[in-house]
Amino acid sequence: MRKLLLTLLAVIFCIAVSEASIFDKYTFKSENLPEEARAMLDEHFPKGKVALIKIDRHLLKKTDYDVKLTNGTKIEFSNKGKWTSVNCGKREVPEALVPSAVRRYVSKNFAGLNVTGITKRNIGYDVILSDGTGHRFNMLGQYKGLTYATSEEEEETSED
Asked: What are the CA-CA distances from residue 115 to residues 4, 10, 110, 147, 150 (Å)?
């Protein structure tokens, strides 16, 4: 009986895992994105060409979109087409996507560094700077602290 139950659970698990991949779709056609997402790409990344779009369909959650541009920029969109995360790698995030209070704080307190990534959260923003450090801001753009540092920076601080 125990062996039968374990076999049945293994079969159910295998079916669930194989079915999960059915919900994701990959394409490179921006027509598959919501209108607001296409408008954002046209406005802030006019020269960026879409390399890949992953359409995540979830059982209990709505669809979201992960877009990768040919220059390596990664952008995540909600089901309605609002951006939730932008990661430009080593390049600077377009200025219009970073709230002005956050931009002012970064230019004043982290001179010489650029915002290379930003994530919208329910209570604020997580920002990645060009030195690899992550910083948290509330919705008003007030600094709330360091979120993480890259392994390179951690190695540098441990050697000192």
From this structure: 56, 46, 10, 14, 15
DSSP sequence for 7-62: HHHHHHHHHHHHHHGGGEEEE--GGGS-HHHHHHHHHH-TT--EEEEEEE--SSS-
49-66 pLDDT tens trace: 999 999 988 766 688 999
What is the value of pTM for the model shown? Answer: 0.76
In 3D space, the residue among 116, 121, 111, 120 whose CA is nearest the CA of residue 133 turns out to be 116
Cβ atoms of 26 and 54 closer than 8 Å: yes
In the chain the domains, ranked by start, together with CATH numbers, are: 24-159 (3.40.1420.30)
Note the Cα 92 to chain centre separation in Å: 15
Query: How many CB atoms are closer than 10 A to CB 93?
Result: 20
